[in-house]
């Protein structure tokens, strides 16, 4: 149960978070200060910020639920996350830093042309708004249960506090708040695990092993590849699907998504950016180990319950954690939500301003550019709230579809970047055709459930590279080049 002291903790957390973001961001003189933190943010702060930005409330409550329901096979995907970030550090980041770029999509503009840059930016804006609108709504679910408030109020509270420090502190403020938020939500998960092991399970970890081992809950690697090709591709968590899928997904989400690339570009140089992205991969593995072990411990405590797996962790927090620890955990839920939301608002406004607005309307006054940028910040915060409210009354199938929106476009986006890196003859028309083909193929693959979700990005990448590469070769032959 939530008591008055828990409410005090939550209110102080929200006020403190807003104040930290406002003051740590400093005074911005231009949009480089606002969107890139004047390229002066320490690599380790960016590293923590990346982890916080990719960890939403959904992760906080669903990963323990996944381990409770299944086992530790998802950790194979996180190993792929680290491998994908190493590939980004070696091949993609040098391209970003050598051109002194300000967004992920500026590279595509330099390589292919303005249309490719604009198209990629627009795709990002739509998919990020929809996907993170759903994440914002998902935040309201446990908060409504724990605080007894309505869905719209929970959504508006999170969005308003996040908007305050994002609009005033800029990216630097967002990053420093993310550093704090990561330790809060991760500390909340560790705290829940400690309570489980020391208070609710009579023999601590031994009780977990006794309950989990017979049910194979502690299995990390899965070498069961099925009895057919079709069965193999529909398994999300065998060793090949998990590691390979995690690698490509990480390459797309952390190498081509402005949400993450914006943070990497705020470091002072290439070496710092490389340390930040690789370091985040190591921390993410550690983080998922904690989340999943909490889930296994919940299985040892509850046994099998006839409720949704995503409700297991909130159920434990509400019914079993004493005050003020429940308040700390709820603050952790807020932290996970706000870190993702702040990153979304900042990346959406930066891409709108730098990729779409500024190339078509030159502004000579840096202060005016800054004012327009803050308007975009307010606009996208409002759009994310609207998206969350839209999904609030949608059937569950629509919500589940929206949570996979990034999968529709990540493959095409990463494929377009790889086409630019590997095929020097590919033109803008080749890239746009390949990108579009990748999206349409993914719509078909996902709608028909042809493969497991870990294969989505790979299918999109291969389609984009195949179509773009074929057209570039066709064009050369048409021009008489052999």
Main structural class? mainly alpha
How many independent structural domains? 2
Order of helices and strands: HHHHHHHHHHHHHHHHHHHH
Q: Class of the largest domain in CATH?
A: Mainly Alpha
**CATH homology-level superfamily of the largest domain:** Sodium/glucose cotransporter
Query: Percent range for helical residues?
Result: over 70%
**Main β sheet profile:** none
Assign an overall shape. Answer: globular
What do you see in this structure?
- With 482 residues, the chain is mostly helical.
- The chain has 20 helices and no strands.
- It is globular.
In short:
By secondary structure, the protein is mainly alpha-helical. The protein has helices at residues 4-24, 31-36, 43-54, 57-69, 75-98, 104-111, 114-147, 151-200, 205-212, 229-233, 239-255, 258-264, 270-302, 312-320, 325-357, 366-392, 396-403, 405-422, 428-447, 456-478.
List the topology elements.
Layout: H1 4-24, H2 31-36, H3 43-54, H4 57-69, H5 75-98, H6 104-111, H7 114-147, H8 151-200, H9 205-212, H10 229-233, H11 239-255, H12 258-264, H13 270-302, H14 312-320, H15 325-357, H16 366-392, H17 396-403, H18 405-422, H19 428-447, H20 456-478
Helix pairs in contact: 1-8, 1-15, 3-8, 3-12, 3-13, 3-15, 4-13, 4-15, 5-11, 5-13, 6-7, 7-8, 7-15, 7-16, 7-18, 8-13, 8-15, 8-16, 9-13, 11-18, 12-15, 15-16, 18-19, 18-20, 19-20
Key descriptive features of the protein:
mainly alpha, 482 residues
